[in-house]
Amino acid sequence: MSHELKHPLNLIQLNAELLRRLPVTKSVAPAAKAVNTICDAVNSQARIIDDLLDVARVRTGKLKLKPIAVDLVSVLRDIHAVVLSDRHDATVELHVPSGALMVHADPTRLEQIIWNLVNNALKFTPSNGHVQLIASQAGNMARLDVKDNGAGIAPENLDHVFDLFGQAEKQHINHNREGLGIGLSLVRQLTEAQRGTVEVSSAGVGTGCTFTVYLPLAHSKDEPQSPTQIEESSGRLSGLTILLVDDSADVLETLKMLLEMEDAQVIAFDRPVAALDAAKSTRFDLIISDLGMPVMNGHELMSALRQLPLVKDVPAIALTGYGAHSDIQKSRQSGFDQHIGKPVSYDDLIETIENLRRSQT
């Protein structure tokens, strides 16, 4: 999915860089500005994609962490130096202990948490405002506060700040920059994945806000350890062999990837006749098929499959754009156990499969 999403962005970026180097572009100020805008937009979109993929990894239990003893003070100093070099209009202050403050965390994910909070603060802080990065120890936890005097958050929106795609409205006096809320949702999920917590406070719109992250301190025994990886949990469909049929190549490929993310073995066909031939000699645990297909539709395929010894009792799901009550009845009559309308919710699909799986045990 990362490849498919980023491939067109890569083409845009490469062609923009090509345009940037043309003499005619360099000589025309509006053209040079347009190319720079394109490149900035591509980079922003790539970051959104990375954040979305990380959210997906966390939610499906596939996030890889390598927790070691990390000096939070050192990480903050490095990030602060980069922020200063970027010459932001807002003032960014760093307040950290003179010595080290060791936390047990994945260094890459720790930086990701901090950068998302810093970028969020800068995004909603006016040019004459200031942002503070404050590190301290709170009991057996390290505490990081990212404070700003920017747009602030209304009290009724505080509970929704970390919701994915539900970022609370935060308005700068001259700009409305609500965003998608992906970065803050990822902050919470990455923090909690490392046994930490994150919270937000604000006195209201126009008063700024403070994001506070707590992470466990590293014990002395953590320091000499080499990075270790948290074992990935098995996907929810581990052990299932699925027969997948859809005449749309794009749908087939995407759905196959999603099911394989849950550790299912997926054998996919864009031609029902080929799927029928495969079912004559291959054992499957589940069948998922579209209905509206040329040559042989899903109802005809299902009726034929029910005549084959290896799949006559295998649970089957009709995944289709046809959602009327009569369509559901027809699916049942042709041999499907469940009928799901498109566009399908990923969680609903997986839950339906799990329910069918439990019913067979």
Explain the overall architecture:
This protein has three domains: 2-59; 68-222, Histidine kinase-like ATPase, C-terminal domain (Heat Shock Protein 90), CATH 3.30.565; 241-359, Response regulator (Rossmann fold, 3-Layer(aba) Sandwich). The protein is 42% helix and 18% strand. It has eleven helices and twelve strands. The strands form three sheets. It has a five-stranded mixed sheet. Strands 9-8-10-11-12 form a five-stranded parallel sheet, sandwiched between helices. Strands 1-3 form a two-stranded antiparallel sheet. Helix 9 (298-305) links the parallel strand 10 and strand 11 (316-320). It is elongated and about 75 Å long.
CATH superfamily of the largest domain: Histidine kinase-like ATPase, C-terminal domain
Distance between the termini: 33 Å
Q: Work out the radius of gyration.
A: 26 Å
- Fraction of residues in helix: 40-55%
Number of domains: 3
The CATH architecture name of the largest domain reads 2-Layer Sandwich
CATH class of the largest domain: Alpha Beta
Q: How many strands?
A: 12
Provide tags for this entry.
361 residues; alpha/beta; Heat Shock Protein 90; Rossmann fold; 5-stranded mixed beta sheet; 5-stranded parallel beta sheet; 11 helices; elongated
What is the element layout, followed by pairings?
Layout (H helix, E strand, L loop, with lengths): L1 H19 L2 H5 L1 H31 L8 E4 H14 L5 E5 L6 E4 L1 H17 L6 E9 L2 E8 L33 H12 L3 E5 L7 E8 L24 E5 L3 H13 L3 E5 L2 H8 L6 E4 L8 H8 L10 E5 L4 H10 L3 E4 L4 H14 L2
Parallel strand pairs: 2-4, 8-9, 8-10, 10-11, 11-12
Antiparallel strand pairs: 1-3, 4-5, 5-7, 6-7
Helix pairs in contact: 1-3, 3-6, 5-6, 8-9
